[in-house]
Structure formats: C-alpha cells, structure tokens
User: Which sequence fits this backbone?
C-alpha cells in the first residue's frame, strides 16, 4: 500500500475542519483509486517477474540445430550461444576427430571473448562491478 504524503493529509484535514466534507471525500476517493491502480500495477509486475523466473531455466535450455545450405555441416547451439555439437559428413575425413577439434576451438574462442569482455568492462566499471563478476564467473565455468 502506498503511503499518503503529509502535505496531502494536512490539506485533507484542513478541508475537513472547514466543513468541506464533499471535497475531502472526493480527495479520499481519488487517492484510494490511485492506490488501487498502483497496487494492481505492482501485483502485475510481480506476477510477470515470477512467471519469468519460473521459466528462466526453460529459456536457458533452448537448443537449435542449423544445417548449412548444402548439408556440409550441422551445428547445434544453445540460447546462450554455446556451440554444443558440430556434425560433418563422413566424406570430410575423420569426421569425429574434426568435430571434436571444431567444438573445442569454438569453445576456446567463446571463453577468450568472454574474458576480453570482462577485462574491458573492468577497465570501464572497475573490478567490483556486478557485471564484471558475472562475466568472470561465466568465463571460469565455461557457461
């Protein structure tokens, strides 16, 4: 419930003391309508936040597989941008070894980019910034 400022309370008291009950009642009704609207908006914002929080894990687990135009390569990535799998046709030589090398190389490049972003953010925001801490934690975990 949103509090009423002392100025508004004083005005309402003054109007009441002067016998202007109709104006006082109207002010009280308007204030109550504003409170109700604000309470409703706050509740809607909380519901949206809770719905998002409960679905956040589902969003993180989203994966997509894309096949190149000529079917030469198939790549699976998650919603955070991590490459999970690279599939090559058997005619590419030792496809299993090449797939492993590609995934490892892509993962290392992503980690390097996250570390570079963390260093840049640290130079702008300082090492104590929550953003820097987040970038460093995802760099260390490989997430």
Assistant:
């Amino acid at each position: 419930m949103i509090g009423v400022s002392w100025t508004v309370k004083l005005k309402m008291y003054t109007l009441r003391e002067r016998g202007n009950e109709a104006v006082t009642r109207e002010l009280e009704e308007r204030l109550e309508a504003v409170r109700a609207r604000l309470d409703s908006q706050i509740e809607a914002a909380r519901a949206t936040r809770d719905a998002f929080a409960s679905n956040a894990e589902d969003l993180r687990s989203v994966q997509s597989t894309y096949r190149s135009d000529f079917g030469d390569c198939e790549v699976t990535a998650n919603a955070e941008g991590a490459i999970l799998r690279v599939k090559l046709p058997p005619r590419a030589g030792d496809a299993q070894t090449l797939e492993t090398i590609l995934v490892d190389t892509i993962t290392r490049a992503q980690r390097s980019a996250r570390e570079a972003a963390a260093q840049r953010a640290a130079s702008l925001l300082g090492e104590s910034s929550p953003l820097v801490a987040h970038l460093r934690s995802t760099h260390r975990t490989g997430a």
